[in-house]
Structures are given as C-alpha cells and as structure tokens.
Design brief:
Blueprint (H helix, E strand, L loop, with lengths): L1 H10 L4 H4 L10 E4 L15 E5 L5 E5 L4 E7 L36 E2 L52 H13 L13 H14 L8 H10 L5 E5 L2 H5 L10 H4 L10 H8 L4 H7 L11 E5 L9 E7 L4 E6 L4 E6 L1 E2 L9 E10 L3 E3 L14 E3 L10 E5 L5 E3 L16 E2 L2 H8 L7 E5 L1
Parallel strand pairs: 1-5, 8-18, 16-17
Antiparallel strand pairs: 1-4, 2-3, 3-4, 6-7, 8-9, 9-10, 11-17, 12-15, 12-18, 13-14, 15-16
Helix pairs in contact: 3-5
Keywords: Cell shape, Cell wall biogenesis/degradation, Peptidoglycan synthesis, Signal, Transferase
Protein name: L,D-TPase catalytic domain-containing protein
GO molecular function: peptidoglycan L,D-transpeptidase activity; transferase activity
Amino acid sequence: MILAVLAAASLTSVSTASAQSVYDDRHTQMVLVSPEGDILDYVPEVGEVMISRDRMGRTVLIDRRGNLVATEIPAESYYPPRQRGGNRGLPGVYDPYSEPAPAPRGWDDDVTTASIPDVDPRDSLPLDGLPQDMPYGGPDLPAPADTAPARTVTPEIPVKSNLSRLEITALQVFLDREGISPGVIDGKMGQNVNKAIVAWEQMTGETLDPNNADDILERLRLSGGLAIKSYTITAGDAAGPFVASIPDDYAHKAQLPALSYTSTAEMLAERFHMDEGYLRELNPGVDFSIPGTTIKVVEPGPYKKGNVTRIVANKGLKQVFAYGEDGGLIAAYPASIGSADTPSPSGTVTIERIALNPGYTYNPKINFQQGNNTQVLQIPPGPNGPVGTVWLALSKPTYGIHGTPEPSKIGRTQSHGCIRLTNWDATELAKMVKPGVTVEFVE
C-alpha cells in the first residue's frame, strides 16, 4: 500500500508542498527520514531507489550504489500528542495535529515528509537475504521476524540495544532530563547509560526497556519534547574567550591566564551535555566559529532541583547517588573514583566548602606527582582546569568532588582519589548540596 501510493505520487510529479501534506488518520501515517535525521522534502522517483528492511524491520530506501536514502518512520513517533494552546513539536516544523489539517490536494498518500532525529545510517543497513534490487513501488517485503525478548538490565551486564544511534540519543536525553545522568550524550549504548537505566528504575519503581523505541520517544515527549533541536550560534558564542590549546604539564598550565575552552564547538558540546565528536558528527562541515550558523544540538533540559542531604559514592559502580531528606534518590551521576595508586577515602566524610569556577593549587608533597614538577603551582580556573568548573571540598584534606576537562572519560578512567564528574553534573550537584552533607564511600 505505502509503496504503491508513493510510486503513484512520484509519477504525478507532486510538489514539495503536496509531499508534506497530512492525513486524517494519524496512526497510519509515515515519514521518510534521511540518514542525517531530516525528513525528505521530495518523494523519490520510481526506479531511483530500491526497498529493503533494516535490522529493526523498518522499510528503508537504498539507491543503486547501496547508499541509504531514507527510512520510513511512523509519524506518531515524531509529532507530539495534541496539546491545547500550543505546538510542542520541533521549532519551525508544522505540526498538523495542533491545528485543523489542510484540505486534501487530490492524492491519497499515507506517507509524508518532515523532520525527526530518529535514524542512523549505520543502523539502517539492509538485512541479509532480502531483495536488494527491487524497484521502489514493487510488492511489499515480508514482515520481519519477532525480535528476542529484552534482556534484564543490570549495572554489570551491558545491554545490546536494537535502537538506532539517534534513538539511543533520545534515551540518553530522557535520562539526563530525569536527573539520572548518562554522562556525555553521544548516541552510544555503554556502561554509563546502562547504569543510568538501573538507577532510574530504582528511583521511579518503573521499568525502562532500552529496546522499546516507541516507549522511550513517548517518555521523551512528556519530559520536554524531542531530543534534538536547532540552535543558532551567537556572536557571544563565537567570541569566546578561548585558548589555543591546553598543555599537559601543570607548570605550563600555570602560565596561562585561564584554562578556557579551546573552541566554540568544545564550549557548545559542554553546554548541551554532548560529546564534542558527536556534535561535529551531527553537523558535518559546519564552521562553529561563524555567528548566525544554525546547528543541531541535543536538548538536555534544565538542572534537576532538590535538597540533597546524603551522597553515596560507589567505587565499584563508578557512580554517585544523591538522596533527599526523605531518603529517596534525587539524582545519579557516572563518576571516576580513585585508583590503585591514589585510592579514594573509605567510610563517611562531609562536604566542607563549595566553590564554583575554582582555581587549583598543585602541591607535589601532598598531591600526586605530575610530570617533573616539584614546586607548588597556582593553576588558574576554567572548564579545562584540573578540577573543571566545580570543587566540593571534603572533610578529608585534599579530597573533593569536582568537574573535569575531559567529560568523555568519566566513568571510563580513574581519578587521583577524588570523585570526578562531568562539569555539568558537578554543577547540578553543587546547586543541591550545602556544607555538612555526608558523602559515604562504598565498595
């Protein structure tokens, strides 16, 4: 049905406006999504593409060189539920369900084109054994076999998700909005995401299936809308201040006026809780230094709010848990906690001081040995400083909870005995604690 209608539409040379028409029955509509996550503004011509199925059973359009052209996605997974008094869809994209649908244009199509960040070309490859040379508009393909039941999520066992790269992004954004941090948002399933799912289930008492894309997208909509939005780089973004590079040697760091960001891309990636490489991947060829440039970023939402009265740093899980006055879990963060050479404390300590945008005093006699430095060094503040943008001093001297200049390594590497979080997670936690809050280290 879908394929035949598309073929008829292309043969009648339907205009772009017509291709973006919508129809009365929302649940039968589909959208054609490009590998970049944009909805096509045209209907492919008969003979230009072939049809197949990807690993998730979705219909995909492949050109004759084997390149992915588009993936069919249900329109209901893009358009948010109808709301009175406003459109919660992607800014700048028309939501037909917030207003009366436009009049039909004379063709009975159940496929439209618009915009949804829901597909990744590497996860939309044709299934082995399915036809690769069927002209678009031919008979439909057989339905995919049922997938295996979802595995139980535990912190120790990674989940092999069936989600596409951008669906995993949606999962990460949802968890981030809930205050259960997945670390950097990079569209990849890993231990930080896995631990976040377990913590979210503990916090809510609900179950979150990491393979159920429809459920994840619905939860995402209810938490604030789509995962990816457009953002226009401002003159202030491009102005910095920036530094050319960050030296490794602490003596060289101490010579800089500030340990600022090195580029607009690095700054924006941190602002939107993203891996810088993923930000660049979503915006291929973009010069981030030019004001007025519109880019794609994720929408993590506002900081979690609450009154944290107790913190547990789990060394084994490499995760920090923040609890409220009622004993309930408020937030959880992946963390780098100690190492064999410089282990974290044991037992319970308290937070003594809270410093935002702190400088750092390096003393090799009481700190670790960095390079060949033997003198006390005053290292200036900045997001690329040794402790990032936050320092929560603990009652055990020289130890603290702090940010990091390398957010992508959080939960994957060890620290010098402190608790290291991403800068944004450390900032969120700092806004919810006061001096005197206990920090318990557990194995």
